[in-house]
């Protein structure tokens, strides 16, 4: 680690709450699939923000869209909507190509998406007199309280217990599904390809 990286890491320890272990590098900028650290050293990025930066860094279409919107309008809260929000909702609905109506809920992260799905499931359960939500062994769904209660790994869960009750983790097998999918179940949470568990697809025929 160079002197500059070391002094930035000292700053990191002083000013930021270390919830995720020490960062491996101090990255200054990116382009396409390349990243550059504060010393100008370049790296081929095989991580892509854990597989979410699908367009790579500084993609011109994304930069243009963000710039245009930043020059037009930013946060307005949910008391109003915008033409852009409506257009994206409509586009997503079209992409689902479903006979059933599909409605979007916009949020900022995977954790929030799962937190919202958990709340929808819990509300459905309460309205329909059901008690159980199923989730799969080894899955990761995020770190807010609801998403964490769906997440399997004891090391992530235990420091924050007690977590919301009524979530049963079951093995990711068709036999366990058949055994546990009773009338009392309001929802089943799955990762179609389990990430943290080691990039494991669900068994054939499961979904
Ligand atoms: C399968 C899965 N679900 C949810 C999350 C949480 O998403 P986020 O980090 O955007 O909150 C992650 C993050 O790694 C994930 O891998």
How would you describe this structure to a colleague?
The chain has helices spanning 3-15, 48-51, 60-70, 83-96, 110-127, 145-150, 154-157, 174-180, and strands at residues 27-31, 34-37, 42-44, 132-136, 167-170, 185-189, 193-194, 200-201. It has 207 residues and is an alpha/beta fold. It has a three-stranded antiparallel β-sheet, with no helix packed on it. A hairpin with a 4-residue loop joins strand 2 (34-37) and strand 3 (42-44). The longest helix has 18 residues, at 110-127. It is globular. Bound molecules: pyridoxal-5'-phosphate. Residues 50, 109-111, 114, 140-142, 191, 195 line the site of pyridoxal-5'-phosphate.
Q: What's the layout of helices and strands?
A:
Blueprint: H1 3-15, E1 27-31, E2 34-37, E3 42-44, H2 48-51, H3 60-70, H4 83-96, H5 110-127, E4 132-136, H6 145-150, H7 154-157, E5 167-170, H8 174-180, E6 185-189, E7 193-194, E8 200-201
Parallel strand pairs: 4-5, 4-6
Antiparallel strand pairs: 1-2, 2-3, 7-8
